[in-house]
Amino acid sequence: MDTGQEIEKLKIISDQHKRAIETELKDLIEQSKKIVVRILLIGGGLALAYLLVKAFVKGEERGTSIKPREENTPSTFSEIRNFVLAELATFLLTLAKEKLTEYLEETKPGIHATNTEDA
């Protein structure tokens, strides 16, 4: 076989490998973008829940110093607010848990795979 023909075959094979690598790289970049967006959404949800709870707790502390109550029972508004905050926090944490679970299940082969060859 002629060396010129071998060189041409090797160039063709090289181009095929190059295109395959470029395709895989594009897929990895797209997957990374999706993962980053999900992480940002989950983090934003958790941050929002934290800020809301923190804002309402600070408001409650200020309110008690302005008007002291004769009884130790909380007002109806306070009970409703606490209930709504608890439900909101539960909802946001459940949503974050679901998103994290989905993310971990999608990446399970890469992250959770046990390597028995090393053992």
Question: How would you explain this protein's 3D organization?
Answer:
- The protein has 119 residues and is mainly alpha-helical.
- It has one domain (3-109).
- It has helices spanning 3-66, 76-106, 108-111.
- Helix 1 runs antiparallel to helix 2.
- It is rod-shaped, with a radius of gyration of 28 Å.
- It starts with a helix and ends in an 8-residue tail after the last helix.
At a glance:
It contains three helices and no strands. With 119 residues, the chain is mostly helical.
Descriptive key words:
about 120 residues, mainly alpha
What is the makeup of the main sheet?
none
Helix content: over 70%
Distance between the termini: 47 Å
Low-pLDDT segments: 112-119
Reconstruct the topology from this structure.
Elements lengths: L2 H64 L9 H31 L1 H4 L8
Helix pairs in contact: 1-2
